[in-house]
Structure formats: C-alpha cells, structure tokens
C-alpha cells in the first residue's frame, strides 16, 4: 500500500558527509546511498515522494575539525533525498546546516529521541531532520 | 615561503594596515624595488609605511632559523641608515609542527612494496605504523596544502572522506585501523591489526596514488 510521508522525520547517517566535488564519483554515490538507506528506516514502506514544502536540518558531528566549509555537506544530501522523500530540490525552502566540532560546547533544549541518540552515538555522524513547515523555528 | 606562512603574513599585514593608516602612514604592501632605497639591495620588505617625516620597513617574521638570520642581517643593515626604521612583526604560527615535504610517488611505492613483503618480519605493529605513515604521505601528495603538517588519523580521515578520496566504507575501515595505529604508537601493545587490515590500508593507499 502506498502512503504519504508524515513529517517531520529524523534519522542518523553514520560517517563523514562527502562533498559535491570529489575525485572519486563512487564516494559520492556511496554516501548518497547511505543517506537513502538511513532515511528508509523511518519512512513508511511504499511511500510517495512528497509534494509539500520541505525544511531540512543537517547537524554534523565530526571526530576532528572539519577541513572544508560546512555548506559542502548540503547538496549531496539534498540530491540523495530528491525523488525519494520529495519530488524536487525546489521544494526545499530552508536548510539549517551546522557542525559540532570537538572542543566546543553546545546546549540542546529538549532534544528529540533521534537527536539524543545522535549526541550519544559514535561519531562521525550526520543528524537529518526533514519537516514540511518552512516556518518551523522562526518564532 | 610556504603557502601557509604566506597566508599568515597576509593576515598579519591586514591587521596592521588600519592602525598604520590611522597614524597617518601611507602603506604599500610588497613594494616594488623602485620604491626602496638602494642600500636594501635585493631585500624586499613585506610592506613599507611612509609619512612626511618617517619611513618604516615592515618585516613579518616567525621563529625559524632562516627568519632569525634574516632579522639579524636587517637589524645591522638598518642600523647604518637612520633615515629608515625597521619594524619586525613577530607572528609565530599556532602550531610548532614542521611542514612536511611531499614525497614522490616513486618513494611512496617503494615503501609500500616493503610493507607488503615484510609483514611477517616486521610484525603487525611495525607494519601498521609504517603503512599509516605511507598512507599519510600519499594523502599529502594529493592535498599538499591542507595536509602539509602532521595529521592526526581523525583529521586525516575527515579530510579524505569529506573530499571523497576514500569511500564511506573505506573510511569506516580506516577509522578503526587509525585507532589501532594510535594505540600502538602510544604504547598499547595489547592490540594488533590483522594482515587483512594492513593490506586494506595498502590498497587504499594505492588507490590514492592512482588519483594523483
């Protein structure tokens, strides 16, 4: 039975996010496959790609200082979720991407179960949250 | 001058310029020879600052043997010419780690071949320490600027994985081996890599060499 996705969804992808520009295309393909596999764990079987507006939260927890820019994380993840969670990248109205490097202190008020799992989990990992409310967090 | 010391020099000069200009100086970064007095000969200051009654040559320096000799030479040179002042800006890098030169592909290959044939003789601990050193050398040959200083295994893998030089699955394998390598390097002799793990590291190193 095909069903609509109920947002928000949250999941964790283990490993270091791969940038868009890479010398080994198989690395990017493998990373995208990881993202899709991780999302499949929280999506209903036989789901449709959503046509709703999408907001994306990407929290990366590296084990060492990130050498590149944090925005390099975004495009491969959005590509991996396109035609899977949503029909087209253009539905994404907001992306919040942040890195949490070792040696820095951050506070999380009331983290969700999945975010709590990410905070406690073995690093590196990427926490992903997809919502259908682009105004989420604005007020 | 390495790219990192050059960029540090530029950063230091950028912080100095507003102050000098506020003091009424006109500042010229990397001045041409035509702007300099003859007594400087081939020496080019990093910047000069000029106003009506003062002429200042600015040299950004760091704690290296070459820098020390240069400062000694310049101090003597300027002491003989009172119309010019020498301002030394001491800007040590945040890390004292030496820059490591890039090894040639031939040298890396030579070391790889030794590891493959010497695992039994050297033992797994020596093999993984050497193999990781060769792996880091191969990575440095691909990304010389980012990896010009000694790398922790964690940072090395973060750099390689985020740039896609290693696949996510290879990164998982290497991360585990990096922990073993670190433990052995710091005296943990109760953990040893398997031959398959060291061979996996060699395989990835060869892949990096093919990407060069």
Describe the model.
The complex is a heterodimer of chains A (139) and B (212). Chain A is α+β, with helices and mostly antiparallel strands and 139 residues long. Helix content of chain A is 23%, strand content 21%. Chain A contains three helices and four strands; from the N terminus they run βαβαβαβ. Chain A has a four-stranded mixed beta sheet. The radius of gyration of chain A is 15 Å and the shape is globular. The termini of chain A are far apart. In chain A, 26% of the residues are buried. The model of chain A has no long low-confidence stretch (mean pLDDT 93). With 212 residues, chain B is of the alpha+beta class. Helix content of chain B is 55%, strand content 11%. Chain B is built from seven helices and four strands. Chain B has a four-stranded mixed beta sheet with strand order 1-2-3-4, sandwiched between helices. In chain B, strand 2 and strand 3 form a beta hairpin. The A-B interface holds A 14-19, 22-28, 30-31, 34, 62-68, 72, 124 and B 142, 146, 152, 154-155, 157-159, 161-169, 171-172, 175, 207, 211.
Beta content of chain A: 15-25%
Query: Largest interface, by Cβ-Cβ below 8 angstroms: which chains and how many residues each?
Result: A-B, 25 and 22 residues
Average the pLDDT over all residues of chain B and give the rounded result.
89
Number of strands of chain B: 4
What structural class results from the helix and strand content of chain A?
alpha+beta
Gyration radius over CA of chain A: 15 Å
The percent range for strand residues of chain B is 5-15%
What is the helix tally of chain A? 3
Distance between the termini of chain B: 24 Å
Distance between the termini of chain A: 37 Å
Shape of chain B: elongated
Number of helices of chain B: 7
Determine the mean pLDDT of chain A: 93
Query: What's the total count of β strands of chain A?
Result: 4
Sheet having the most strands of chain B: 4 strands, mixed
Query: Approximately how much helix is present in the residues of chain A?
Result: 10-25%
User: Oligomer, anyone?
Assistant: heterodimer
